Amino acid sequence: MASGKSSIGKKLAKVLNVPFVDLDDLISENEKLSIQDIFKIKGEIYFRKKEIEYLKDILLQKDNFILAVGGGTPCYGSNMSVINNNSRSYYLKSSLESIYTKLSDKKNKHKRPLISEINDQDLKEFIAKHLFERSPFYEQAQYTVETDNKSKKEIAQEISSGMQ
Prior knowledge:
Elements: H1 5-16, E1 20-22, H2 23-31, H3 35-42, H4 44-59, E2 66-68, H5 79-86, E3 90-93, H6 96-103, H7 106-110, H8 120-138, E4 143-146, H9 152-163
Parallel strand pairs: 1-2, 3-4
């Protein structure tokens, strides 16, 4: 969450001249509800089932593209295996402080269903807990890219130069 997956993915797609797909946007478009509304109306279990369905569908396409998945995607079911078996995977690793700074911004926080109701005092602890729980899944990615103190453009260039 807030590591820059979507914004860096868009820049990387431009550099590589391939389409960009955001899994959350794809789900939202197909379900005709925002991610926040899917969580609110249908619940997280419904969302996670749809997430794996759309993930598999998109990864079975033969075309090259850049896919940004949600922060929770790698942590459910066999998603990380599905990702690694059908694509090149990258973990955009950000520090707790970097993530907290981005997520404590009110306009950013409002768009994220898992943290929208958490007060600022509890937010850092929530992020730390999620990083601790999710790191074993994230670390299964084939490549890790440290994002702190780098621009989105620098990160995109680092990834693209490693792909050649």
